[in-house]
Each structure stands twice: as structure tokens, then as C-alpha cells.
């Protein structure tokens, strides 16, 4: 109920449209009683008394009432569609906005396919609640009330008999509503499971082909798809019993009224026309009750979907994205003091970290895989928040700084360069929104990327494909470097690529990186000897702790872990 009410609370944003719909619904519905009234008049008065002159106007009245009913109906549907699309747009927009404010930790635990399911499927399911809730629910309730009043006016005894099935219908609806929650949740879960697998597999299609996993993955997909089929069939089977059951109850009502009406006729209490009109009215009374059952089914599906939407909307966003202070300028003096952090496990991922970078220095982080190098730089950008100690930039603790400002002051070149599915230009201007073409080419030249971009069919306007799939690893790297150059940040975080590229490309990337690191404080997760050699200080990490620090020559002469890393080629020549 809470979820349904929250969906409906979105409607408050458009009170005028809601009121107009209500007006059309009430006016249109009032028209349904005209035809039974005309029928009664024709059968009981006009025909017995052969009032030819009244027949034409009465028929025209019935026709006019139907015309008005459907005209208002058409208006209501048009209003409803616009209204519903506006609400859905708001809901999608709110959901996307919230998604962007959620911490990375949240995304670590949520498959992409699951999020896609919420935006792509759950929101349309919520939408059904809105369209049908208003279209069927509102009209049905008004119709039941209006027709009910007319039924009691026409014949109280028959009206009371007509109400006999109502308690049973209500009990049936209640039972169905209570039990359907879990069935619908299971459908949403199964759908999300299938979509998550699909998303993962499409993204990993190269790996599937390379490892010839097609058959295995097909059966995994079929298993997820079968789970969705089973959950959907469960909902449908119960519905297949419930709906005809409810239909039968309303038919019992019709038969009861016919029975009692026939007795009334024989006893001379009522006229034939009254009974015929009553039976017509009764149909208009039971039809919307059946619609309400259909609506109940839709609302239950929408509620399960709505829960998933509101779960995201209710998740706590990252703090300090707009609040927090900024500094007038950054010189790039970075200090880690006794920093500790854990992703949630018992053993801290990094602990007791003390590290210092003077403005303009290059700091190299080396260590075996899983040592905590990426974690350390993720703490500086506040992608994750440290649990112990403090990190300062120019003396200001980063946990006091405005995150958006902090991140805009830091350039981050990741090992796997992520490019968005757009043009080269669109990927570059992320670094500087208002960059001119001249600036873009200048940055590309510094990143040694102007040559290949110049040779692309449409130059800067060439589409790079999803994740930059149409470019080589080396080309993507250099576009990322150009993007970071455009941003011109005082602090740079660089995760050196380990992927092999040919010597010439490597040289080009290296000179581009050297230019990028010039005159700014740089933290490099280093995999190459050439980088560590030039570093002002190298920190050697192992299992989340700094075990050695110093310059290359210094550390080699100590003959410790670093010297071993060099010998074992973990740092490439
Ligand atoms: N998002 C995450 N959630 C949970 N644990 C994580 C997460 N990211 C990393 N870890 C764990 O934290 C530890 C340190 O990982 P990190 O990526 O910092 O290592 P690294 O030194 O950068 O390794 P590599 O050189 O292989 O990239 C690893 O044990 C890893 O499994």
C-alpha cells in the first residue's frame, strides 16, 4: 500500500491535469445510466401507450448520452496519457539523478543488469499502475457508486440481492492481494537475474567466444530464463483460477436478481421494463467490479516493481557532493597520515599508511597484485572514505572538501581507458567542456594522438563505439591522456597500463605521460622501470602496508622487496 501511495504521490505535481481527468471520468460515467433509464421508459411507457412522438427523442437521448460518454472518455485517455508520461519522466529522472549520487560501494554490489531492469522494466510496470489505476480504478469506482445509487432508487429489494456476492468478492480480492506480493516479487527478481546475466554476457562476448563457452553460457541463460518463465507462470496460474472465480460470483448475483425479479413480476410488484432496466444496470454495476480485480493484478505487479524503484530512491546518497569546502588554489601537497581502510572484510585492505608528496613530485606506488595500490588512490578522490587517519591536500583534510570540486582538481587516467560511446570530440570535452578545436588538437598532439585521430575518417567526429571498442588499446590510452591534459589538474592519478603495446606505441604513450605529469603532483601505480626511475619517491606496498620507501637506486641497494620485484620482472624494463 505504501509503495502504491508513493507512486500516486507523484500525481500531486500535476493537480490541474488530475482534476481535469476526474471531471471527464465523472461526467462520462454519469452517462451510463441514461440507456437503462431510456430502456425502462420505452418498455414501460412509450410502447404500451404507443407514444410514437416520444420514441425518436428518447432514442436520440440514448445516442447523445453514449456519444458524450465516449467523448469524455477519449478526452480522459488523452489527458491520462500525457499525465502518465509526465509522471514517468519525473520518476525516471529522479531515479537517474539518485543513481549518480550513490557511492561506488553501492555499485560494487549491484549488477548492471539489475539497474537496467529497474529503469527499463520496473518503471514501465509502475506506469501501468498509474494508467490503469486512474483509467480503470477511478472510472470503476465512480461507476459502481453512480450505478449503485440508481439501482437502489429503482428497486431496493433487487439491489440488496445484487449485493449478496460483494462480501465474497471482497474476501477473494483481499486473499489474492495478500498472497500475490511474493509471487510478483519473484517475477521481478527473476527478470532482473536474467537481465544481469544477459548484460554480463554481452559485455563479455569476446571472452565467451575466446574460451568457447557458448554452450555453457547458453544453458546458464536458459536456466535464468526458465526461472523467469516459472515465476511468471505461477502468477498466471493463480490468476487463471482467481479471475473466473470472481466472474462466477458476479454471475451468481445476476442469476439471483433474475430469480427474485421473476418472482416480483409474478407477484405484480414490478414491471417487465423495470426488471429489464435493472438487469442492464446490474451489468454496469458488476463490470467495473471485475475491472477492479484486473486492476488489483496490475497494482500488485506494479507494487513489486515500485519497491525496487523506491529502494534505489531511498538509498543514502554520497555525502559532500555539493556541500563541503573548496580551496582557493591547490599547490599539490598531499599527505596520508596513518590511513586505514577496509572494503568491509575483517582484515583492513590498507592500514597505517603514511605517505607524502610535495607539490610537483611524482610518487610511484609499487607492489604485488592486490597489495592496495588502487585502493590508496581511490581514497584520495573519495571514491571510498577512509576509516582511520587522515589524507590532506595543502593541509586540508579531504573528508572536509566538496567532492565535486575535489574530483575536478584531480586527473585520473585508469589502466583500462574507458571511452564513452560517442565521438572522439565528445570524449575529449569531458576534460574541458568549452574547449576549442585548437585546444583539442593541441592536447591530442601532446598525447601523441593527433596523428591517428587525423587519419580517422571523420577526425574528431568519429564514433569510437561502446567503451571505445573501435580503437586500439594504445589509441584509447592516448585519448584518455589527452582528456586529462585538457583538464589540466594540479594532481594526477595514473594507473599505468600493463597491457602490452608495441615498442613504438609504448614510447609514444610514455612521452605523452611524461608531458602529462610535468609540473603536477602525480601518483603513479607503476609497472615500468622507466617510470619508477624518474619518481621522486617509490612506496612499496604489501598486503595493505608500506614496507619500503625511497628512490630507485636507494631501494635497489637495500636488496629488499623492491629489488625482488625488479628482478622478477614485476616491474618491466
Ligand atoms: N570494490 C571492492 N570491494 C571489495 N574488495 C575490493 C574492492 N576493490 C579491491 N578490493 C580488494 O582490496 C584489495 C586491494 O585491491 P587493490 O585493487 O587496491 O590492489 P592493487 O594493489 O591495486 O592490485 P592490482 O595491481 O592488481 O590492481 C584486494 O584484495 C581486492 O580484492
TrEMBL record:
Lipid bilayer topology:
Multi-pass membrane protein
What InterPro entries does the entry give? AAA+_ATPase (IPR003593), ABC1_TM_dom (IPR011527), ABC1_TM_sf (IPR036640), ABC_transporter-like_ATP-bd (IPR003439), ABC_transporter-like_CS (IPR017871), P-loop_NTPase (IPR027417), Type_1_exporter (IPR039421)
- Which coarse location class describes where this protein primarily resides? membrane
- Please give the Pfam families that the UniProt record associates with this protein: ABC_membrane, ABC_tran
Please tell me whether the keyword Transmembrane helix is annotated for this protein. yes
- ABC transmembrane type-1 domain location is 22-301
Provide the alphabetized UniProt keywords: ATP-binding, Membrane, Nucleotide-binding, Transmembrane, Transmembrane helix
> Where's the ABC transporter domain?
334-568
Could you name the domain of life of the organism this protein comes from?
Bacteria
Q: Which residues cross the membrane?
A: 16-38, 58-79, 133-152, 158-176, 246-266
Where is the protein situated, by its record's location annotation? Cell membrane
Keyword check for Membrane, yes or no. yes
Q: Which PANTHER family match?
A: ATP-BINDING CASSETTE SUB-FAMILY B MEMBER 10, MITOCHONDRIAL, ATP-DEPENDENT PERMEASE MDL1, MITOCHONDRIAL
The name of this protein is: ABC transporter ATP-binding protein
Amino acid at each position: 500500500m505504501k509503495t502504491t501511495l508513493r507512486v500516486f504521490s507523484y500525481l500531486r505535481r500535476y493537480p490541474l491535469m488530475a482534476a481535469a481527468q476526474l471531471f471527464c471520468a465523472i461526467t462520462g460515467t454519469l452517462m451510463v445510466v441514461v440507456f437503462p433509464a431510456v430502456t425502462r421508459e420505452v418498455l414501460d411507457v412509450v410502447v404500451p401507450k404507443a407514444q410514437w412522438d416520444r420514441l425518436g427523442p428518447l432514442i436520440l437521448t440514448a445516442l447523445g448520452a453514449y456519444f458524450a460518454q465516449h467523448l469524455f472518455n477519449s478526452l480522459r485517455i488523452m489527458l491520462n496519457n500525457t499525465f502518465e508520461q509526465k509522471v514517468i519522466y519525473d520518476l525516471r529522472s529522479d531515479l537517474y539523478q539518485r543513481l549518480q549520487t550513490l557511492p561506488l560501494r553501492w555499485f560494487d554490489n549491484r549488477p548492471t543488469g539489475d539497474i537496467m531492469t529497474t529503469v527499463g522494466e520496473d518503471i514501465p510496470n509502475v506506469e501501468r499502475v498509474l494508467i490503469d489505476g486512474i483509467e480503470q480504478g477511478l472510472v470503476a469506482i465512480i461507476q459502481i457508486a453512480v450505478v449503485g445509487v440508481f439501482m437502489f432508487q429503482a428497486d431496493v429489494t433487487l439491489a440488496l440481492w445484487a449485493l449478496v456476492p460483494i462480501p465474497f468478492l471482497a474476501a477473494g480480492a483481499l486473499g489474492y492481494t495478500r498472497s500475490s506480493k511474493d509471487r510478483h516479487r519473484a517475477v521481478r527478481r527473476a527478470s532482473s537475474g536474467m537481465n544481469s546475466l544477459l548484460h554480463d554476457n554481452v559485455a563479455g562476448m569476446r571472452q565467451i567466444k575466446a574460451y568457447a563457452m557458448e554452450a555453457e553460457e547458453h544453458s546458464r541463460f536458459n536456466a535464468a530464463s526458465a526461472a523467469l518463465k516459472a515465476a511468471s507462470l505461477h502468477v498466471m496460474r493463480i490468476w487463471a483460477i482467481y479471475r473466473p472465480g470472481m466472474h462466477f460470483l458476479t454471475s451468481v448475483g445476476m442469476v439471483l436478481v433474475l430469480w427474485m425479479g421473476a418472482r416480483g413480476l409474478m407477484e405484480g410488484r414490478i414491471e417487465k421494463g423495470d426488471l429489464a432496466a435493472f438487469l442492464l444496470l446490474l451489468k454496469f454495476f458488476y463490470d467495473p467490479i471485475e475491472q477492479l480485480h484486473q486492476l488489483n493484478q496490475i497494482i500488485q505487479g506494479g507494487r513489486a516493481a515500485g519497491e525496487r524503484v523506491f529502494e534505489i530512491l531511498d538509498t543514502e546518497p554520497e555525502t559532500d557532493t555539493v556541500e563541503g569546502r573548496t580551496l582557493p588554489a591547490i599547490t599539490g601537497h598531499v599527505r596520508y597520515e596513518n590511513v586505514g581502510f577496509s572494503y568491509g572484510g575483517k582484515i583492513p585492505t590498507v592500514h597505517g599508511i603514511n605517505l607524502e608528496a610535495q607539490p610537483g613530485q611524482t610518487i610511484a606506488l609499487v607492489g604485488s597484485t592486490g597489495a592496495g595500490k588502487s585502493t590508496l588512490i581511490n581514497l584520495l578522490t573519495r571514491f571510498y572514505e577512509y576509516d582511520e587517519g587522515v589524507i590532506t591536500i595543502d593541509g586540508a583534510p579531504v573528508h572536509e572538501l566538496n567532492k565535486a570540486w575535489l574530483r575536478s582538481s584531480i586527473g585520473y587516467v585508469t589502466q583500462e581507458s574507458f571511452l564513452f560511446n560517442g565521438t572522439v570530440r565528445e570524449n575529449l570535452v569531458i576534460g574541458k567542456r568549452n574547449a576549442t578545436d585548437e585546444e583539442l588538437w593541441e592536447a591530442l598532439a601532446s598525447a601523441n594522438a593527433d596523428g591517428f585521430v587525423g587519419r580517422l575518417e571523420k577526425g574528431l567526429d568519429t564514433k569510437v563505439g561502446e567503451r571505445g571498442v573501435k580503437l586500439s588499446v594504445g589509441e584509447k590510452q592516448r585519448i584518455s591522456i589527452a582528456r586529462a591534459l585538457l583538464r589540466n589538474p594540479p594532481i594526477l592519478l595514473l594507473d599505468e597500463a600493463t597491457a602490452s603495446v608495441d615498442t613504438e606505441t609504448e614510447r609514444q604513450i610514455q612521452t605523452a605521460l611524461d608531458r602529462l605529469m610535468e609540473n603536477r603532483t602525480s601518483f603513479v601505480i607503476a609497472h615500468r622501470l622507466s617510470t619508477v626511475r624518474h619518481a621522486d619517491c617509490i612506496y612499496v606496498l604489501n598486503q595493505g602496508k608500506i614496507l619500503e620507501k625511497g628512490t630507485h637506486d636507494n631501494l635497489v641497494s637495500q636488496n629488499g622487496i623492491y629489488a625482488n620485484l625488479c628482478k622478477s620482472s614485476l616491474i618491466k624494463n
